[in-house]
Design a protein that fits this description.
This protein is of the alpha/beta class. It has one domain: 3-Layer(aba) Sandwich (Rossmann fold). Helices cover 35% and strands 17% of the residues. It is built from ten helices and ten strands. An eight-stranded mixed beta sheet has the order 2-3-5-4-7-8-9-10, sandwiched between helices. A two-stranded antiparallel ribbon has the order 1-6. Helix 2 crosses helix 3 and helix 5 packs across helix 6.
């Protein structure tokens, strides 16, 4: 599998991102992750979505580390400082699952508090359901687990076609369009940093077509099995959604109704768009810290 690696110079002096890089080999590819805070502390695993990278969590990482937690934010393969296979066909839902699980197993993460959004939820919820013993809590922001039981909205179909066929695919501008606040030019440039040219964007373009939207998608059986397991999930499960997300802003309802561990928790819809970590990262971190403090691990 041919893969590109973004030159390190592209990541120099990004605003608000001073973190030391760490790398793991996952299936012959190099995956980057941020790892801040005590190594022996309970981990908070933050999973980004499409088409962002760990830069999305830069406001939250220090808050978790300062609270004495281990803050881990990987770049999915194809994003950020991680290697980028150069063909769209190199990416699949299962490969992303396998790459992430390789990292989790190498770091031997346990008692994980999962924070996930967008594709981070499609991956994180699958992994948590399949490896429940490793996870202590889940916080979902503007995410879901597709099982092809409902029609995808037209807006998603338009986005999928745009990602696959548009000759113009401006990563930073796409992230900016999904925010409720206006992003400074330097922040937009930081989201563009991993992608020096169109050749580096195969992973970002591939994600929308990998969403299991029909019965024939190979991920559907595993996703439905994971959804069934979430229907018996008793551990804390908190939804904090950006209410200005026009597509997923109300996607918390089916999750809260389905997951037993969601009952009685202080779910919130905050003044944020799709990328709520960018709009209201500190607020999302505060909700997560409050959940951790109120739901200590059982001896």
């Amino acid at each position: 599998m041919a893969a590109l690696r973004t030159p390190e110079a592209r990541f120099l002096d990004l605003p608000g991102y001073p973190f030391t890089p760490h790398y793991a080999d996952v299936g012959g590819l190099r995956m980057h992750y941020v790892d801040e805070g005590p190594r022996d502390a309970a981990p908070v695993l933050m999973l980004h979505g499409e088409p962002s990278w760990s830069y999305l969590y830069r406001k939250m990482i220090p808050m978790f580390a300062d609270a004495g937690l281990r803050a881990i934010a990987p770049d999915l393969i194809g994003f950020g400082k991680s290697d980028k296979p150069s063909r769209m066909d190199d990416y699949s839902y299962q490969r992303h699952i396998d790459w992430l699980m390789a990292l989790i197993e190498q770091l031997d993460l346990r008692n994980i508090t999962l924070v996930c959004q967008d594709w981070g939820s499609l991956l994180g919820l699958r992994i948590a359901a399949e490896h429940e013993a490793r996870f202590a809590r889940i916080v979902v922001g503007n995410g879901f687990l597709p099982t092809a039981t409902a029609k995808m909205p037209l807006a998603f179909k338009v986005w999928r076609a745009f990602a696959m066929y548009s000759p113009w695919f401006p990563i930073g501008r796409i992230v900016g369009a999904g925010c409720h606040t206006k992003l400074p030019d330097a922040v937009i440039a930081a989201y563009d940093a991993p992608f020096p040219s169109a050749a580096y964007k195969a992973g970002a373009r591939a994600f929308p077509r990998l969403v299991p939207a029909d019965e024939q998608n190979p991920a559907i059986p595993a996703n439905r099995a994971a959804w069934a397991k979430l229907g018996a999930w008793q551990k804390p499960f908190l939804c904090v959604f950006g209410r200005h997300d026009p597509i997923i802003g109300r996607g918390d309802r089916p999750l809260i109704a389905h997951v037993p561990g969601a009952q009685g928790l202080p779910h919130a819809r905050i003044a944020a768009g799709h990328f709520l970590q960018e709009d209201k990262g500190e607020e999302l971190a505060q909700h997560t810290l409050a959940l951790i403090a109120s739901t200590p691990l059982k001896a």
